């Protein structure tokens, strides 16, 4: 005998439907589970697979908003609500960058490249004023047009300076009235595209379009020049970050930023780069001006710190170019010293072609303990997360980190691999799966009683 509680719904909704309705409800529930599962996964993909063009479009909007905020700050500074007006800095402060004061660093005795490094203790007095933009500054063009065309007034490159520059600059750039157009086909040596394809083939790929499949997603470009190599990598959906030393005029960083490319001032002559350990899949240096065999290999050790396991160090330098006998012998000696240092830090020379050398960092963390000599030594525990801008360390770090994941084990798509999930957590759609089963129970319950 049916209880009164179950008989009440039939009073309002009529007699109980046939069993075919229950079957239809079950099919609807299964379809609902499939839809929620796919939408949760696609929602995650939509977050992680944001097109690069959208990223840089948002970056352009932020720069435009910064210009608007600058004008608003200038207006607010003259308001009655402020006790003291925040005025504009003088023209002599147009190139002012906090913690980078070349003249003060030289007076303090810094040399051998350290005068270009970051020294906040020398940046006194502190100026409470708004650094004004260049006189003819204009809002950069939107991406992707702004990648290849910038305003010459934004980087303070005049026609006379352009004409007095070398042939390489004229080949890379074309100055037209108040704009600078970058030749996308030109670049390092035989062209950026040819150079990128050469690097890909040297690491065993068919073309540079396979960088993502090989685990190469983030690239640190040291001394990026005009940013042409980074701009090409961005077109391949890679994240290339430019880092270059401080320059008062003709800044490489400013050129890259005007082109919409990530860039920052950095110089590791004496201090570490402002990145955590194991951050990049590839480190690239094309005539970046660093003498890698100096300071007992500490520059290479710093590259090893930011390089992920299985990552690549690409060095393009005219070290093997035959010129004078003494100069050629010195370059061969430099190459020999670098090769000896790379063996000590468990790197293997993957390929060499013309003036390009590619080393690969080991994926085996036990390689460091199996070395004949413990030089350079391993860093102590806790050294992997130091404060930024610390002095260069003569020890190998990252070997005890949970983030020690070879780049070859990363998934080729936008979802994390199983090894990465152990470090970065679980997918959010599993919570939605619980909600799906809950809705399934409620829906099936009402289908049963009605």
UniProtKB/TrEMBL annotation:
It is an enzyme of class 2 (transferase). GO terms for biological process: methylation. Its EC number is 2.1.1.-. It is a single-pass membrane protein; Single-pass type II membrane protein. It comes from the Eukaryota. GO terms for cellular component: cytoplasm; endomembrane system; membrane. Gene3D superfamilies: Vaccinia Virus protein VP39. Its main location: membrane. It is found in: Endomembrane system; Membrane. The chain crosses the membrane at residues 431-449. One of its GO terms (molecular function) is methyltransferase activity. Keywords: Glycoprotein, Membrane, Methyltransferase, Signal-anchor, Transferase, Transmembrane, Transmembrane helix. Belongs to the methyltransferase superfamily. This is Methyltransferase. It comes from Jatropha curcas.
């Amino acid at each position: 005998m049916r209880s009164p509680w179950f008989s009440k719904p039939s009073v309002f909704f009529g007699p109980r439907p046939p069993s075919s309705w229950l079957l239809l409800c079950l099919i609807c529930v299964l379809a609902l589970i499939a839809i929620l599962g796919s939408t949760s996964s696609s929602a995650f993909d939509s977050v992680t697979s944001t097109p690069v063009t959208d990223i840089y479009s948002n970056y352009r909007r932020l720069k435009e908003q910064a210009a608007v905020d600058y004008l608003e700050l200038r207006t607010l500074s003259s308001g009655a609500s402020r006790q003291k007006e925040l005025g504009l800095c003088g023209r002599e402060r147009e190139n002012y960058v906090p913690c980078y004061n070349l003249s003060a660093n030289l007076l303090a005795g810094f040399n051998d490249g350290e005068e270009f490094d970051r020294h906040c203790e020398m940046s006194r007095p502190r100026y409470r004023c708004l650094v004004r933009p260049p006189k003819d500054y204009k809002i950069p063009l939107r991406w992707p047009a702004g990648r290849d065309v910038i305003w010459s007034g934004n980087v303070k490159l005049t026609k006379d300076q352009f004409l007095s520059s070398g042939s390489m600059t004229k080949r890379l750039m074309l100055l037209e009235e108040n704009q600078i157009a970058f030749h996308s086909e030109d670049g390092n040596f035989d062209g950026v595209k040819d150079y990128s394809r050469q690097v890909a083939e040297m690491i065993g790929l068919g073309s540079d379009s396979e960088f993502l499949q090989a685990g190469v997603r983030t690239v640190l470009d040291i001394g990026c020049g005009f940013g042409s190599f980074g701009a090409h990598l961005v077109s391949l959906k890679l994240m290339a970050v430019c880092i270059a030393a401080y320059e008062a005029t003709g800044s490489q960083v400013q050129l890259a930023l005007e082109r919409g490319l990530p860039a920052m001032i950095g110089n590791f002559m004496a201090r570490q780069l402002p990145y955590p350990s194991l951050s990049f899949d590839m480190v690239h240096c094309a005539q970046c001006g660093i003498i890698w065999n100096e300071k007992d290999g500490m520059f290479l050790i710093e590259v090893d710190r930011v390089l992920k396991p299985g990552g690549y160090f690409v060095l393009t330098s005219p070290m093997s170019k035959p010129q004078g006998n003494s100069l050629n012998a010195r370059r061969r000696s430099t190459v020999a010293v670098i090769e000896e240092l790379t063996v000590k830090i468990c790197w293997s020379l993957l390929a060499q072609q013309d003036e390009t050398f590619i080393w690969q960092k080991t994926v085996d963390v036990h390689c460091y303990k199996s070395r004949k000599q413990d030089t350079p030594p391993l860093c102590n525990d806790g050294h992997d997360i130091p404060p930024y801008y610390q002095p260069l360390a003569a020890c190998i770090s990252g070997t005890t980190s949970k983030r020690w994941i070879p780049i070859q084990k990363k998934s080729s798509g936008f979802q994390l691999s199983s090894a990465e999930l152990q470090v970065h957590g679980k997918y959010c759609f599993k919570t939605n799966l619980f909600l799906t089963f809950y809705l399934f129970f409620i829906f099936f319950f009402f289908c049963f009683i009605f």
